[in-house]
Amino acid sequence: MNYYDNNIIKYIDASIVLNPFFDEWYRIVEDILRNPEFQKRKLFMHHHNITVWDHSILVSFKAFMASKYFKADKRVCAIAGLLHDFYSQAWISTPELEKLENGKYTTLMKEKKPWYKMHGFTHAKDASINYVKYFPKLEDKKITNAILRHMFPLNIIPPRYKEGLIITTVDKLSSVRELPSITYVSKKVIHKTYAILSNVNRI
Ligand SMILES: [Fe+2]
Ligand SMILES: [Fe+2]
Predict the structure, then answer these.
(1) Percentage of residues in the chain with pLDDT exceeding 70?
(2) Domain spanning 6-202 has what CATH number?
């Protein structure tokens, strides 16, 4: 294990590190994992109990594994999986993130927005732009499309390529498993629906 950077490995779930295909996946995504901007995703919460860092690694690795079964492009799946939620603005506030660089990652979440500008509808486009900003050498039409369309069917246009269909499916399966209970989901859905309806009434 001397080959690996311990500062990265210790932040990856052991079940992934110990997988026989870990090395193949790691070689594809190592530069992204080392990137200082991507490292900040350890401070972004994806849901209340998991960070964007952990969620993105899980989606990337599972999509990479699925690519073998579906004969898809494993590099596209690994990279798009890792960057599909690489949005620039957080949707859950934490004290650490509010302090980071004068709160630049939490500014938009404090603004009142119409329902169609809420995180669920906008973050895929934000991530598809943000990934090119920080990783211009990785720009690729399949990666961009997979990131941009990963919120299908909430965003109504489906992914164009097989790799994008893998990302959106793995993302949903992972997100459901990350949620702690049906009670939590129910409360979230009720809360979000109420927020959306409140905003619709104001339009
Ligand atoms: Fe997402
Ligand atoms: Fe996601």
Answers:
(1) 86
(2) 1.10.3210
